[in-house]
Amino acid sequence: MKQIDRIYINGQFVAPKGTATADIISPVDGTIASRLTYANEADAQDAIIAASRAQATYAQSTLPERAGYLQRIHDEIMLRMDALIEATIVEYGATRERAKWSNMLAATTFTGFIPVMEKYAFEKPVNESTVIMEPVGVSAIFTPWNSSSGSIAVKLAPALAAGCAVIIKPSEFSPWQAQLIMEAIHAAGLPAGVVNMVNGRGDVISKALMESNSVTKIAFTGSTTVGKMIAQQAVRTMKRLTLELSGKSANIILEDADLSKALPLALQAIFMNNGQACIAGSRLLVPAGKLDEVKVGLLEAYQTFKVGNPNDATVNIGPVASQQQFDRIQRYIQVALDEGATLIAGGLGHPEGLEQGFYVKPTIFMDVNNQMRIAREEVFGPVLTVIPYQNEDEAIAIANDTEYGLMTYFSTTDVDHAKQLARRVQSGRVLINTLKHDPLAPFGGFKHSGIGRENGDFGIEAFLEPKALIV
């Protein structure tokens, strides 16, 4: 069992002042994977002081210096890749392939921001003025448990590129992964106080960070419910905000789509990351006249998905992250049954032979309309709802009839037509015939799916303030 009993403040791993502990349960088999000692509010205050002291000097660092830090963080993560993959499997339940992909993405995110930073115009003429883009200041980043290293990287890399000192508040459910990333950052040799990490209860740590006038920027990934609370708290001290929140994404199968390709892709879009993804294509919109054909195709494609121990190379769906997640998904499956949805695959309970750990049955419902709770609320699990539409106008209307707006998927043989339809959907990203991730394109959501964007120039600008110089 791992003991996670150090936080990182002012360039050193130190024992937290907090004394409370929590056992981190592995979703793979229900055993204790690690024991975390929580940081407390005093630890958060120490991190704020360290970051505030480092900010003035780091803001004056050169781009070559920052590039060197980003490159070395990448290199140190790569040296710890095997350990990160193991931690992601044991602590979160990701399949080995997914664990490798997500941690490789974290590493390359740091180097990916080097050319973005080097090409970015930190000073530019605007009409009769010169606009100087300055670091926003001490930034607190809150990261989720479903993508620990990747979420740290996508926030920390642009903050460092912009010249900001940072306090990381990782999910308390992924402390081993966060510890390994912090060890890599420490080994990269950044100046003391530029990056700090306090791992503790969200309500305790966030209180100090949100109330501090020294913290000028918040970058948060998590649920819309928590994001709204953070936004309300942030305005009291006028903190700048980037919020990457919940989703209920529509996956629209157009009339001309090749179902033999579109339906396996649709199941990947909902079952990826064990169903725990804000971008999951959880609402599958299909032509009403093709429902029977879609049902047959979904059941055929479903057979290619295997639930099991994520260390098994033949498994492509591991357990969900916790007992709480398991229970949440079971409640939503029961809600769907109560609402009259037709279960065609999966359902309640553990898969046979997987009673130990937090394994759920990947589930597909048909006979769903967009007013059912199962179609409106984020389940955050491998549960797909199939919703029929009569024509494209209705498909677009259904896709937009949600409080969220993170992602929309299209499957079609006419890409140009789908591009035109993409202009009508209210979401931050639209994917056509693919599940590809572009790490330099803006990522974020419309409506209740968030505020602001991450990645590329948009990611750097989220940690900058413009100053107009007029002579």
Automatic annotation (TrEMBL):
Kindly state which keywords UniProt assigns to this record, in alphabetical order: Oxidoreductase
Catalytic function, reaction form: an aldehyde + NAD(+) + H2O = a carboxylate + NADH + 2 H(+)
MF-aspect GO terms: aldehyde dehydrogenase (NAD+) activity
What are the positions of the active site?
244
Annotated EC: 1.2.1.3
Residues of the Aldehyde dehydrogenase domain? 15-468
PANTHER family assigned to the protein according to its UniProt record, in alphabetical order: ALDEHYDE DEHYDROGENASE, ALDEHYDE DEHYDROGENASE-RELATED
UniProt record similarity statement: Belongs to the aldehyde dehydrogenase family.
Protein name listed in UniProt: aldehyde dehydrogenase (NAD(+))
Q: Which organism is it from?
A: Chitinophaga parva
